[in-house]
Every structure is written in structure tokens, then in C-alpha cells.
Amino acid sequence: MRGSLKKKLLAVITATAMAVMMMAGIVSAGTTYTPVAGTSCAFNKYLIVEAGEKVPTVTFSFTATPGTGRSISTSSNDVMEVLPGVGTPVITDVTFGPGDSTTDVTTDLIDIQRAASDRAAGATPANGVELESGEVFATKEATVSFAGITFPEPGIYRYIIAETQGSASGVIYDNDQDRVLDVYVTDDGTGTLVVSAYVLHTDDDDVAISSTMGSNDVQAAGEALADKTDGFTNEYNSKDLKVEKEVTGNQASRDKYFAITVKTTNANASDSFIVSLDDDNDANTNDGNADATSGTNAATISDNAGKTNPQTVSGSELNSGVTFYLQHGQSVVIRGLAPSIEYEVTENAEDYQSAVKSGDTNSGVIGTVAGNDKMAVAGFTNTRSGVIPTGIILSATGLIVVALIVVFGIVFFAVRSRKRYEEE
Between 3.30.43.10, 2.30.30.240, 2.60.40.1140, 2.40.40.20, what CATH number should domain 239-383 receive? Predict the structure, then answer.
């Protein structure tokens, strides 16, 4: 009997201990989180270029650092606490190139903040990209990796994304080079942490608390978080080079093709440039006026006949020298050159007198495609003139006229003499 009572008492004590242990486990599970690993997010990089030009080869880099936290007093129920970011996320570089496609189609989903030095005002999500006439843009994506970073508690973790300002010629960088990235970590209701959202915006606004004491995705003042953005914007401010030919003189052949060579010293070897040979019916572009293939005629030497004028050239080719074949009044336009590019234009004038073409906006065979003008112009005027000699040698036409006069005179006097003879 006593043994049975002891067994029952031991069972009760054991059951009570197990219950206490289980309750302790439940309490522990409800108050201690397992840190959640960060994932990744992405933002867009926009590069605005002129229509009718290739996208330049240029790389953009970014850094991510923990932002400044916003500690809120316990009495505040208007603004949520913002925590400094944890760790250092890694952002991939973005590289554009001549093969990238462009568009001028804008949507409300695209937000581009224009550079302060640019001509257009900043855009907002309400009106999308604000492009000027003749502008297009290319888009690439940068990935922000949170690999190796864990978040220990629910909250808003803030990072500052900064664009590294490079030295690429012609690139206008965003006047606001920083963006704010907020990472929202939440409890999914089961005591498990999840990364639920990434929000990129331009200012480090306070985040308002909703009626349920959660994030309301608005500023503390209750206004919508209108500074949301989806990336960074840069513009490529390029230049064009026009090369033209003029022929003058009474001994000059205006149908003759001359070889003119353009050579640069510092073009990006991997860049590609469009060469305009004719009017593309776009008022926003500079156009050339040349034959795709030079013709064959008596005035053109064989080395210049039947030669192709290229419609695209690489930076490497320009640095080595590219030859074009032009007649009087013809020209080519190389589009999309960086403002720092130095060029030299030479020609084979053959037996013509060559001079720098007057009236050029950037006269000279050596120059830089810089300055305020969109297009630099270089060219040559070739002259071949002769003095027509006078002397005892007459032209065939003159001899014929003289002969006719002589014959007419002989006939006239012969007829007159015969009449006098008959009258006598």
C-alpha cells in the first residue's frame, strides 16, 4: 500500500516537472528569435543617351553602408524605430556597352532623378522618365546581396546606397548620389523572422506607425512615401564630328573621290560609333551626305574607286585611323564621341591644292570634340585651277569659223565679179 502510494506520488512529481519544462520551452520559444539571413534585392541603373547613337562602354559602382538609426522614445506612437543596418551588403557593378538596347518608352513604374546640371527637372513616380526630345535610355540592374548578413529582431534596418562618382568623359552623374534602402524584417506570426520587403527611397524619412502599430509605408507626417525610387540615373553628354569635302577651280573634277582619314588618340577601344552617311529624317540628329560606296569615273584614281564608307566604327579602329571617300559637297558625321576625344583629319589631295575648309566651326585638321556645340566640323577645300593660254594656236571652233568666213568671202567676190563681167 505504501509502495503503491510512493509510486503514485513519484508519477505526479515527474508529470509536474515535465509540464514545467514544457512551459519553460514555450516561453523560451516565444521570446527568443533565430536570426534570419538576408537575401538580395535589386535596383535599376539608367543611362540617357542621344537618339541615333550607340551606348558608350562605361561601368558604374556602388557601396552600401549602415545608415543612422532613429531611436524612438517609448511614449511615441507616431514614428517607428529605425535600426542601423547590420553588416555590409555587396552591390554588383553595372556595365553598359554598345550592344545595349535603348528605348524612349516611359511608364509610371520608372523613376529617374535627373542630374542638377542637366536641362530637365527631376521626375517622380507619377510622371516617369522625363526625357527631352531626341533622348533615349538604356537600363541595367544592380544586385544588392545580403549574403552572410543576419537580422536578429523584427524591425526596419536602414542602409545608405551610394554611387561612386567616376571619371568617364561625357558622363553626367546624378546630383543626388545617395539612396536610402530600408530592409523590413517581420515576425510571420509563428515566431519566425522573415525579410518581407526592401524599400529604396531618396531621403531618410521617418516611418509612420499604422493603426495596428506596424509600418504604414508613409512618412511621419502621414503623407505617402513619395520619394520612393527604383534606381539611379546618369546621362552621357556626347559630341559629333563632321568631316566634309569641297572642291573648287576651273580644272577641278567635282565628281572625283578623295580619301580622307580620321584618326583619334584616346577613343575607348571597346566603344562603337554610328557614322551617318545620309539623312535619317530625325530632326534631333546630325546627318552626313555621302555614298555608301565610292563610284568609278575618269577623275578618280583606282585606289579610291569602289571603296565602302563604313556606317559603324569602333574606338579601336578610330585610334588606328578610318578612311572615308568623299566627293565635292559630301560629308560624314561620326556620332556619340566623348568630349575628351582628340582627332586628326588628313587627306590625299593628289595634284590639288589643299586647305582647311573655311567656315568650319572648329577649323583645323587637329582638334578636340569639346565645347558647347554638339558638333565639331573639320574639312578640306581642294583647288585646281589653270590659266587658259592665248597665242597662234586657235581652238577648233575658231578655225572653222575663220574657214567659213574665207569661203563666204571667195564666193561673194566671185559672184560679184561675174555680174560685172556680164554687164560689160
Answer: 2.60.40.1140
